[in-house]
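Standup notes, structure subgroup. Blocker cleared on the AR6 input:
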Amino acid sequence: MSLRIIWDDITGMKTEAIVNAANRQLLAGGGVCGAIFQRAGHEKLSRACRELGGCETGEAVMTPGFNLPASYVIHTPGPVWQGGGQGEAALLKACYENALSLAKEKGLKSLAFPLISSGIYGYPPEQALDVAVGAIEAFLKDQEMDVWLVLFDQSIFQLALETYPALCGQK
Ligand code: AR6
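Run returned:
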């Protein structure tokens, strides 16, 4: 049971669930969210999200994965970066904690995260990485789960290689 950081496209992950860096309306957006909706099947995932009626920042909800290799998608809206003084770090930490708790509650044993908030929402990647690794490692201290942090941007993966070399590797 461990955390691995890899450089890949999360939509191809064969973990039981993948996490979507969502918006509060749970609408198909750009970035990783757009890629997930496209590969899952836009219609089906949009309908499932509509039935949930939205999700607050830092909370997490789950839908089927439809056409994705992963059986489920856990949607969690990250905070928009506003300079760091608006509780962004606590909200981002809550995204990881609530997604992991939901996965545990559903009995899932493997989960893949993107680096939430580090794209369109503007969270500085280095700080976003520290929040992600801190929250996931704290959870794994007393829980059994295979967790992947899937980085898409080569420069962010390079940052992870420099900061957390022991965690970086292949699928
Ligand atoms: N696999 C893994 N990571 C990816 C992929 C992918 N296929 N595509 C992009 N990323 P972002 P946010 C990385 O912008 O900042 C959406 O419109 C990307 O390089 O996807 O939380 C939502 O609907 C970046 O490091 O999410 C919201 O409205 C990370 O995923 C808003 O954007 C997060 O970037 C959320 O913004």
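Discussed briefly. The mean pLDDT is 97.
Next: hand off to the docking folks.
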